[in-house]
User: Fold this.
Amino acid sequence: MGLAALRSAVAAGDKIQVGFIGVGRQGTSRLNEFMRQPDVVAAAVCDLDEAHVAGAVAAVEKAQGHRPEAFHDFRKLLERKDLDAVMIATPDHWHAMPVIAACQSGKDVFVEKPLSYSIGEGRAMVNAARKYQRITQMGNHIHNDRPTYRRVVEVIRSGALGEIHRVDCSLATGNGSLGHQPNGSPPAGFDYEFWLGPAPRRPYNPLRSHFTYRYFWDYSGGALIDFWCHYTDVVHWALDLKAPTSVSATGGRWGIDDDGETPNTLEVVSEYPKLILTWTLTPNGRPGFDAMGSSVIFEGSAATLVTNYNRYEVYVKGKKEDAFQPPAPTIPDSPGHVREFLNAIKSRQTTSCNVEYGHLLTKGGLLANIAFRTGERLNWDDAHEKVLGHTQANRYVTRQYRKPWKLQHV
Assistant:
């Protein structure tokens, strides 16, 4: 019997030993969030940038009064048999391999959104979590850290809007420029070759690593995939959506002069049975609902609901219904996104944003980017997770890893 099968639930009163893989800006934020929980011990930290490691070690020493073990290679961290779980906040192209290896080593996994760089990686992560019976949670924290989506789901399910056949998502990206930076040598203490990992080898450029990596196709999918899971989450939750049947997208990187590759202006149309979901990505957001900022609009036959992370409004025939009476709450409050994960480690009950749900969410955004990159309307066979009749598009479904890295299929 393997280690994963031998590991049992952490007792209710026990401390949870957590290792943190990727402790840059987002990873350090998650580290501090975990350490605010009274039963978490930040036992180990890992990053390819020595400055990140030093900052994380100092944060643990200040918050918990002990020095965590520091690692350069996540595989060495995973060899620690006393760790119950890991938090993974690496760049998108480095999600799959640590998640799968953590499952294989018997550790529960919290991983940032989007779940994966590619659809094939997401499927491999789901399979690993299933095989090794791991508790998982994708870092889609709006789902549990704020009450708005719960109340919106209750309104939609009550039937107050009538039949819903169209949902519009919009994201205001701003119009900031990355600028231009020359290639050069990586800074001291940053293992750039390891950081590239399965991605193609490129000369080092400061814009292509750390936070701004997300605007380059080798490592991520731009603003769309960065926020797709946050906004489509409420749509999937309220309407019990599965995967789209077809996707098309058009747009570009317009109005700015910089080295970024991913679009800042994009219009996506995803087709589902009896439903169209659109995604508008523009610097200023969707006209007409400027006060809501980035938002989701459910268009019903009787009324329209528009929501953002913090509040929602209902409109009937174009007029805001200030006297709208929502249904009585039926969805229990959440203890919080991280707390839900930690509770599940002890109870062995599934979380609300496990990797299966995370894969379903992420898949739609990845397909939108594939449609944009191919410039064609794609027909999607979800049972086999492939694009029908399109060889080029299917090359994006699962990337070719750069040697010696390999995606493990378990």
Remarks:
- Residues 1-6 have pLDDT under 50 and may be disordered.
